[in-house]
Design a protein that fits this description.
Length: 175
């Protein structure tokens, strides 16, 4: 499963690995978690198909939908890096802890509650702003985190508008 969305975009979203629905359809984030992500983004004026490209750390579905093993992620890392290089995004949204720990390998132990919703830069990817978000599957399992996720997405949307069209983002009509 390679991706879903627009390869000529400024926003790249990176998830963990394909699930069963993604494996069957050959597209990233088309299952329940992807549908939730689409809905949350659409409610904020962001079309995940037109305005982003969604990819995963691991390109093949791990058995029994488990988290990817480090060796599986390392085998897919050259493909992931090439996708980032080809897309040249201005913003990368890391969907969940797995995406964060495989992109920022120095992060060994962390709290998603502390990481989610923060923009940061990474020396290995100059010129790209990163933001960690709760994985939508986590929101499905714990709906109490949905308001936090929506606030984080609002921060992302504000930054995205500034990057895509700074004149409109700063005008009264752009708010």
């Amino acid at each position: 499963v390679i991706d879903r969305g627009n390869p000529n975009t400024q926003v790249l979203m990176i998830g963990e690995a394909p699930g069963e629905t993604e494996d069957l359809q050959g597209k990233a984030f088309v299952g329940r978690a992807g549908q939730l992500l689409d809905e949350l983004m659409r409610n904020l004026g962001f079309d995940t198909i037109q305005d982003s490209l969604i990819i995963n750390v691991v390109k093949c579905r791990p058995p029994e939908n488990r988290q990817p093993k480090p060796e599986e992620a390392s085998q897919c890392l050259p493909f992931l890096r090439k996708q980032i290089e080809l897309v040249k995004p201005k913003i990368i949204l890391l969907l969940g802890a797995t995406a964060l720990k495989h992109i920022v390998t120095s992060k060994k132990e962390f709290s998603m509650s502390e990481e989610a919703g923060r923009f940061f830069e990474h020396a290995e990817y100059p010129g790209i702003k990163f933001m960690v978000l709760f994985h939508p599957a986590y929101i499905l399992r714990d709906p109490r985190k949905k308001p936090d996720m929506i606030e984080h997405l609002k921060q992302f949307i504000s930054e995205w508008k500034e990057i895509v069209n700074p004149v409109i983002a700063r005008s009264p009509e752009g708010t």
